[in-house]
Amino acid sequence: MEKINVLIIDGHDRRALASVRSLGSSSEYNIFIGSNKRLNSSRYSKYCERFFLYRNPDDNIKGFIQDVNDILISQKVHVLIPMDDRMASYVAENKYSFSQDTKILIPDWEIFKIARDKSLTLETADKIGIPIPRSFQIEEALKLKEASFPLIIKPTVSSASIGMSVVKSQSDLKNVYNDINKRFPNPLIQEMIPQGGHYQANVIFDKSSNLVCCSVKNKIREFPLSGGPSTFFRTVDYPIIEQYAEKLLKAINWIGPAEVEFMVNPKTNEPILMEINPRMSATIILSIKAGMNFPEYIVNCALDKNKISGLRNKKFNLFCQWLIPGDLSNFLFNKNRFSDKYGYFYKKGIKCYHMTFDKNDIKPFLVNFYIVAKSIINPSKIKRFIFRK
Fold this sequence. Notes:
It contains 13 helices and 16 strands. By secondary structure, the chain is of the alpha/beta class.
């Protein structure tokens, strides 16, 4: 039987490593890794058939498309899978510029934009009755009383909490808003939902915009502490979040993987929609460990071979840790590090997995450790990671 050739781009991303291991461990697939960075952990996985270097799309989008098409054609790639927000955006916007012999499970650009832009996402959610945070124009916010603070100011298009700030008083509002507005025009100003739990629904929708699968996770720790990628998380049972995520994405005719984020208001116990991240979740490793093979579902949907519909995770309280550098950074900056319910180095839950470590595929972890160690001597990289700017 002919193997299915899959190209994963953004190979330096940690979700790429989870995907190459998941697919590569099956004899059905040949897994190719692409990246604009020569040094990345996924290319050193024993499951990676071959690595390809392409031009950085941030600097040369036409060159990037040409390079990727050369790979698609020369390797007879059946399915292309982008990883992070930025790459998914480039692929969606240029979807019809790639080889039509290769399948991509991603919506057209007009639909993708609704999920990528937080203001459009929230507008859609509000129309269909999904709870959203109260939002303000800057003129309205400047008239608010101190009791309305703190507020959140964040870009309409960003990821990993880049550009987001918490404003604690009226006196700080104008300066913080102007600073963010210079870098990210017309940012959102929202009420800050009290901390009652941070949840994400990881989903895949097929080409007919039907839900294929869903897995809900609770973000226990993150970095930066004010809001950022998950560093320690678990699977949970939360049917209303599953329902909201399905309803929202169905409303915009979504196709492909997505991560829908919610904050639970402890005063009302109601999940409040935060955003859609229009790509595979960085926490996808835990869904895979729970028996939900998201990368394989994506390939099957892209090739019209999917036989799964409405699958929901039933394995709860499985934990996962992104120790280096994520949870280790949380430990260093978290004043409550020793009173946390779940430990950083022990007492991490009955069943806890590691995001990048795999004893049967050790090389990527060692490469990742080297990359982190190398970054420590680069102050600008450390600053970007800590402050997400």
